[in-house]
Structure formats: structure tokens, C-alpha cells
## 1
Amino acid sequence: MDKICIRGGVPLEGVIPIGGAKNAALPLMAASLLTAETLTLRNVPALADIASMANLLVQHGVELTRGAEGEDGEHILELSAGHITSSTAPYDLVRKMRASVLVLGPLVARCGRARVSLPGGCAIGPRPIDLHVKGLQRLGAEVELRGGYIEARAPRGLRGAEIAFPAVSVGATENLLMAATLAEGETLLINAAREPEITDLAECLTAMGARIDGIGSDRLRIVGVPLLHGVAHSIIPDRIETGTYIMAAAATGGEVTLTNTRLNLVATVARTLEGAGVEVSETADGLVVRRRAERLEGVDVMTEPYPGFPTDLQAQVMALMTIANGASMITETIFENRFMHVPELARMGANINVHGASALVRGVPQLTGAPVMATDLRASVSLVVAGLAAAGQTVINRVYHLDRGYERLEAKLARCKARIERLQDGA
Ligand code: EPZ
């Protein structure tokens, strides 16, 4: 398995282009199942998770071609679900990426049936999908869990309903939003997730002919239509990649410009980091990140559904706080087990005490490079942030996690003077 080797302590200086949002691209790709016409997606990130979703859709019968590279090398995907040849999403594909469950709503809406493997848990928690299932049942589908699969049927089509989510769920909101676009009548999603990726999906669905009100709010009203048509849609920038590189720049004390992204996607993150002494300003060139003082100040962080501080940036901000002046209390409210980066950061000299859902970080002057182990996508990249700031060499193992969510990470950082390289297996 590949490793990443970093010799830290070098301030990042330069420009980092931000790619399309992974967590927008995945539901948008699944939305191709809702129409027989071609859905063209632009600004698609080249990531392992995107390839996994592509493989899944192809086995459903979606014709998928990589369109001409855009003028600046952007990635274009053309997806045509003219004939869905299978409504089964098999375990061996779904287990590789839990977002595969996002084909459930579109398949039931378009074909009247779906057999989707239960995704199973992952490192950060059991990741149930009860809200997806209950929502589909509210829309009139008969759903059974059998042999590790969700078996859903709606032979007479779905019917609009009112669905009040007891908890905010990004995936359940996306699955049911997509299903409702083809349901008979009106659907109301109450306590819907409001992540920008959901807004992007809703805007694309609207362009495909869906009738959706309340986009961007926690109440989405959808009036079903008989069919949707194809469209071309550009995917929003990846706010988690943006936030990750903001923290990498802040951790190393350098000045970095992030292009192809927007400040309003990371408003809460920028406000939080302002308190820590990180200046994030929007210029004509993009987002300019620099540390205001010699040392960062510890700030408290609590993860929340959008527009709160994103859970997908919790590990990264913790890495940053390990070298701040003073203490930082970091509370994870979304997932049950999202502190696996803590023991690895501790190996680098961080002083962190975990009490239930909160971690108390006491800043140290500097981290020391060490061999560390990645356990999930965002924990992996928090070790990269720490390694960039640490004195000495850090070797990060199991970097396949990184490839799921960060395109050309080493190249982007190396172009900003980081001493980082990928070591092929066995090196
Ligand atoms: C999406 O996951 C993202 N993935 C995650 O990003 C992100 O961390 C998460 O939203 C929260 O923002 C994609 O968009 C592909 P949820 P999702 O349903 O939809 C519980 C990354 O690193 N829940 O909002 O699975 C669940 O257990 C990934 O890019 C239920 O109880 O998240 C969790 O505690 C990691 N029942 C909470 O809700 C359900 O039916 C939030 O989960 C569904 C969820």
C-alpha cells in the first residue's frame, strides 16, 4: 500500500486549485438514473469514490463517457440511463462506498423497484439508513430488509407525502428529494439537511424539469412530474477540500491562494479560524489564507449540520489546534466515533484528552514527525496537515483513504513548496 512521506516545517506558499465537490458529484451522478436523457456533469473531481459510483451506475446499465476535457482540464462526465438493465446494487460494490445507497431513491422512482445492499458501517460509526427507508415507505414504497439487502417496490409508482426527519441526514434528504421528483403529487421534506451539496443537487434537478421550492432551506416542497430531461450542470467547488487547504496553510504559517472556490461555502469555518488568528480573505484571484500572528490561538469547535462547522473538517481543525497557543475544546456531534486521528496525532507529540464526544486539545509549540496510520478519509488528511507543520519526517500509511477524497494532493502541496512525496508500496 502506498505511503506519503512529508518533511515538515516549510511554510506553504503558492496557489492551490480546488476541485468539484465529491459530496455533490456522488448524488448528482445517481440523479442520472431519474431520466432516459443524458446528464452532463462538469467540474467532476477525479477521485476513487467517483470511480466507484461510476462502476455502480454502469452495472445498472448507465452509459457513461468522459466528455472532452474542459478548457482548464476540468473533468466532464456524460451519463445516460436510457435503459436501466439492473435495479440491484450488489454488496461487493456498495461495501466499497456507502454513498452507493444514493441509487435507492432514483431506482424506485424510475423503475418501481430496487434491491440495494445495506452499506454497513464504517470506521466513523454504524451509519444506519433507517431514515432513508422510512422516508421511502412514507412515499408508498414497500420496503423489506432481507439477506443484507434493502428490497423496495412501488409497482404503481410513488405518491407524494409529508416526511418530517427526526434527525438531519444529508443522504436521506438527497435520496428522498430525488425520489419525490417523480412521485405522484406533492412531497414536503421537513427538517431537511441544508448542505450546499443538497442545494446543488436541487438546482440540477430543477434544471432537469423537477418542481422544487424551498431550495437552501430545511423545508423542501416537491411537486412530482411524469419525467425529467437531460441537462448540463457544473458541480460546486469542494468546501471540505477548501477548508482542508485553509488549515494546511494556517498550520505551516504560509500564505496560499485557493482558486475555483468561494468564501461563502466555508463561512463558518473562516469565522472560526479568524478567532484562531487565521485570515481568510476573498480576492479576484480566489481565497487568500495567511496566519495573522506568529502563533495561532486555541478556539473551541462544535460540529453541526450546515451551516454549522462541518464534521468533515473536525479532524483537520484538531490537527491545527494541536500547535495553537492555549486550549481548544472540540466536540463531535454528528458521528459516534470520529476521533481516530487522536492517537495518531498523539504519536506526533500532540496533547489531546478525549472525554466522550469532546476532545480537549492543549497546544504544544511544535509537533514531531512520526510514522502514523490513516483510518478514514478525513483522519488521513488531518495527519497530512500535522505532518506539514511538524519538525522532521512523517510517513502516513494506508493513503488509499486519501485518494477517495483528495485529487492530486501531493502535487498540489508540492507546488506550494511542501516537501511531500508518495512512496509506492514496498519503497
Ligand atoms: C454525508 O454522509 C457525507 N457523505 C459525509 O461525508 C458527511 O460527514 C455527512 O453527510 C454529514 O455531513 C456524502 O455526502 C457522500 P448523514 P451521510 O446521513 O449522508 C445518522 C466524507 O468524509 N443517520 O447526514 O451518510 C448518521 O449515523 C463523508 O466526505 C441515521 O441515524 O450522513 C449520522 O450520525 C464522511 N439514520 C448522522 O445521522 C439515517 O438513516 C448524519 O448522517 C441516516 C443517518
## 2
Amino acid sequence: MTAYVEIFEVGPRDGLQNEQCQISVVDKISLVNCLSRAGFRRIECASFVSPKRVPQMADSALVLDGIHRDPHVAYAALTPNMRGYRDAVQAGVDEIAVFGSASEGFSRANINATISESLDRFRPVVEAARLADIPVRGYVSCVIECPYEGRVSPDDVADVADRLFAMGCSEISLGDTIGRGTPESITQMLMAVAERIPTEKLAGHYHDTGRRALENIDASLDVGVRIFDTAIGGLGGCPFAPGSAGNVATERVVRHVESHGYVTGLDLLVIDEAAKQASGLRG
Ligand code: HMG
Ligand code: MG
């Protein structure tokens, strides 16, 4: 097992999407530019979804157009359908993500589709990205609990994850969207998914609502997961998951895993500077 842990920064997307006050394009660009100096391989900084549903992300193309592109960083965006895909490609995105759910209730609330309909929508997106040589991440939300349906079974998570992986997603990010996971439930869920997908293709995406995200990361490391999604300053939440707090904070995760002997390759001075910027943006 390698000692390298990739921290996938999602603050400019998952973090900012939930802020009620409109944040200026200039401030968003400035945050991404700061994060670009920290040593991340990938930063999720845009989302090509309906501006009526997520107004904060309506200026995603302007953000991608305005940032200083570090050639060592891949700039990623959410693309729920072909329209989002085309807009993202036009904006010069390096990596895209489709996002599904392990629970029907959240799928309906988030993207207005059943799980099966959502997979049908993703298929042409993944295929177009494959032809264009653009990596696709597949998110699975509500891997522990759903705000509308309660407990979600690990088998249901494994099933959706497997279908996204079989479709051509190169990595599956497992979202504890409302932060109800415990080391026990996270381990159980990961074991079910790992029966079908190699652990090196999995990422842990843990919201910190229950304040157990760091413990959940430890449990995931024990299972062999080496990629974790975090948001600078602990920004965020999901507008369609009542009660979801921010993703676990990047600066806490970096310190935590490094204190356990893992290497992230990240510059904590820059990360702390970005965390300061992020807290200034909070409404
Ligand atoms: P729909 O509701 O099925 O309806 O959209 P539609 O396809 O008929 O479109 C509705 C309206 O959206 C139309 O506009 C379309 O033109 C427009 P109107 O006629 O009403 O003016 N539209 C678009 N506009 C811009 N870009 C597009 C696009 N597509 C349609 N790509 C859709 C389905 C998914 C688009 C919609 O439901 C939506 O945008 N939902 C928001 C989903 C979202 O962004 N959720 C938050 C991110 S997911 C998350 O945070 C979880 C995650 O972090 C993991 C975790 O924590 O678990 C990833
Ligand atoms: Mg999230």
C-alpha cells in the first residue's frame, strides 16, 4: 500500500454551491488561483447545471475562463447531461463528473430523475468524454443515509457504483452527503463496493455534519482508499440535502493524514492562505 494520499479539492464547487450570497467571479477565480499554488493534482471548480437550481454555479464558464491554469492541475466540473458536457468542454475543462445517487429520493430531489433514468442520461456523456479523451469521475451520493429515505444499504451503493464504473467512469467518488457515516458503516459500505471495484479507483467524499469525517477517512485508509475529496475551509453542503454541512476541511485532512505518515505533496502555508480566503467568502 502506497503512502501517497491524493486530496481532491472540491471547495470551489461543492463548497461554494451552497453559499446563499452570490460570490463574485473575481473572488472565485482568486480562490482557485490560490489553490492552484498548493500542489493539488485536481481541483473541482465548476458545475454546468441548471442556473435556476444552483444559481451560485451559473458563472462556471467565466470562472474557468478567468483562472490561471497551472499545467500540473486538472480543473474539473460537474456535467449532469449532454448540455452540461458541451458547455464544460467549451469552457476548456480537463475532467468531468457525472453524479448519481444510491437512493431514489435524493436522485429525484437532486437531478429530477430516477436512478435508472440518471444512468441513461450519463451514458452519452461518458461516451462523448471517452472519445474526447476526457476522464470522467462518477459520484454516488447518499452512500450511508438519504435525507428522504433514511439508511441506504451497502449493496445498493455497490450496485450504482458498479454501473457507473462499467459505463466507463475512471473513478468512483462515494458521497456521505449528509455526513451520517461512522467508521463501522463506512467500512461496511466500502467492503461491499470493493468487491466489485478496485479500491484504487475509489474516492471518499465525506461531509462533516456528524463530525466523524476524519475517523471515517481513517477507516477508509484501512480498507485501502487513497483519494479523499475535501473543501478548503470546510465550505459547503448540498442545497438538495437538508442538513448537510460542508465537506471535511482540506486543511484538517492534510494535517491529519500527514501526522499518520501519509504524503500529500501539498503546501500547508498556501492551503492556510486559501482557507483564510474561503472563510472571507462565507455568507
Ligand atoms: P431537469 O430538472 O430534469 O429538467 O434537469 P430539464 O432537463 O427539462 O431542464 C430544466 C431546466 O434546466 C431547463 O431550463 C433547461 O434548459 C435547464 P428552463 O426551460 O426551465 O429555463 N438545463 C440546464 N441549464 C444549464 N446547464 C445544464 C442544463 N440542463 C438543463 N446542463 C438537471 C436536470 C440535472 C439539469 C437539473 O435537475 C439540475 O441542474 N439539478 C441541480 C443538480 C445539482 O447541481 N446538485 C448539486 C450538485 S450534486 C452534490 O452536491 C453531491 C456531490 O457533492 C456528492 C455528495 O456529496 O454526495 C456531488
Ligand atoms: Mg458533496
## 3
Amino acid sequence: MTSITLPRPDDWHLHVRDGAAMASVLAHTAAVFGRAILMPNLKPPIDTTAKALAYRERALATLPAGSTFQPLMVLYLTDATTPDEVRAAKASGLVHAIKLYPAGATTNSDHGVSQLDRLDPTLAAMAEVGLPLLVHGEVTDPSVDIFDREAAFLDTIAEPLLERHPTLRMVVEHITTADAVAFVKAARPGVAATITPQHLLLNRNALFEGGVRPHHYCLPVLKREVHRQALLQAATSGDPRFFLGTDSAPHAKHTKEAACGCAGCFTAPHAMSLYATAFEDAGALDKLPDFASRFGPAFYGLPVNADTLTLVREPWTVPDAYTFGEDVVVPLWAGKTLGWRVA
Ligand code: DOR
Ligand code: ZN
């Protein structure tokens, strides 16, 4: 196969930050994807519908004239999010989900939820109006090994949550383990997962390849090879509960190449090349269109994009860095060659 044409894909998990940084990175996504879920972990967080709508306007203002790219907004769940806020979010028609960051789990999660069961009325309102809960599925207890935090979250938090709210829809974001694959497969209808390119392509050895590799560090952290294999199997299985979410998370180069480096891999420009590489290695390129373009819209109740994207088999070397506001950001795979690029 020398080219593959698919309905224009969407990115169901994306970080674009704000201001000049957003202007730099959102253009890459808008050039390839039709829509993207913009994650709300800004400082301060996007925790009201009013803030989400203003953020959406700022995102749209960065796009080139004529762009049809649609930012899809998400609220950041805090201890103070009320059922009324949930209803306002739904009524806006522009907020598509609410994101749970356990307090302290990751970048800008200090406003996250400290005790989830106290939010039961808010979660009940989400179930009632049909706004899905997107979860960063990791416990934050520092005594739990970092490689076990996802599995622990699913057992101790997600499972009881789904039982308390039998109609709440949930996406376990950026899954990293065989445990998460099994959890989603065994769950009742309305539970799905996104999978990033880095978790399909790399295992935890990539963090220490000849030295510490800060550009391979993201959260949840890369796991063992058996887990990567389970994710690849899920992504290429044709199961509609597993769909594309890059979790492209740009940080300025100097904040990653530091004594305490930030978590996140920047993949917005070449995410489709990375996914195509992973799917081809698994002998399943034919499964890419459903994973990238159809299963996400089906979960969110949105139409599949009407136009298409073509990937061609052509060696392409990933740049060493991209502009990021006043800084630069180093992409995943920098300086290495990929076998597919967007036509
Ligand atoms: O690696 C990550 N980076 N994981 C997250 O959950 C957040 C993200 C970010 O915003 O930088
Ligand atoms: Zn994320």
C-alpha cells in the first residue's frame, strides 16, 4: 500500500495551552484533524461554561481564514462544580464533556478533585444530561508505585463510580495498561478509552535509552512491553470503545530538559504518521480509519467528518523543534524518520 485515504480524523484528547503558545501548536492540529477536544488544564483551569466559551473564541481566533476546524470544549471538574454548571455546559451545545483530574495527578491538576464521592450530585447531573466524564485515571497516593497508579484507579475509583452512576458515560483517557484494556472491555455500555501514539509505539525502556529521555516522559508514564502489546491489540481490534486521542501536550524545550522535567509528548504535527506506523507494524493499517475517524464521533454522538485525509508512504524526518510562542517545543521522534506523512 502506498497511500491510505480516510475520513478526516478527529483528536479526542489534545492540549493546546493558551495565548501565543496556542497559536503555534493549534495550527498543526487544525491542518490535519477536523475537530479536537481541548483539554481544560490551564492556569487557572477552564472550570465554567463561560470560561470554556471564551477559550473556544481564543482558539478560533488563532486559526487561518477559511479553516473549518472545530474546537470541542471540556470543563475541568473541581470540588466546586455544581449540577447547575453541568446543565449550563450542556445547554451551551459547545461543551462536550467534563474532565476529572484527581488533585495532584498531573500538569496543572492542583485544582482537581480531592474527594470524588462528594461530587455525586454533579455526576448525577452529568448522567442525566448526557455529558461524559473524561478521566485521568491515576491514583495520586504517593505510596502507590507510579507504574501501578492506573490499575489502582480503575479498581478503587472508576469501578465504584460506574456502579454509583449506572448511566454516566465515561472515557478512560490515554490508557496505558492491559488492565485498562480489560476494564473497558468488561465495562457496561457507555465506557470507552482513548489511546496515544506514544503508548502504542514505546514501552518504558524508551525512558532510559542510553540516558534519561525527557521527551518520552508523559503521564500516565510509559509501561512494560506487555502493556504496549495489549494497547496495540485493542486499538487495532476494531472494537469501537477504543479510539484516537493524541494527548499531544507541548512544553517548552527548557522545561522538559530540566532537573524536574514536565510531563507530556508533543505529537500534534505528525500524530497521524505515528499512528500509521504503529498500525502498520501491527499489520492492521486497514483498522486505522475506524480508530481515527469513526469510533470517536460515534461515542460523542457527532457525525463523521465529510472530507478526507490522505497519508502517503514516504520517508519523512521529524524536525528537531517547532515554534512554541516565544520558545520551542521538541516533538516526539525528533530527528528520526517516519514512513508515512500527510499528503
Ligand atoms: O503527560 C501529560 N501531560 N499528561 C497529562 O495528563 C497532562 C499533560 C499536560 O497537560 O502537559
Ligand atoms: Zn492529557
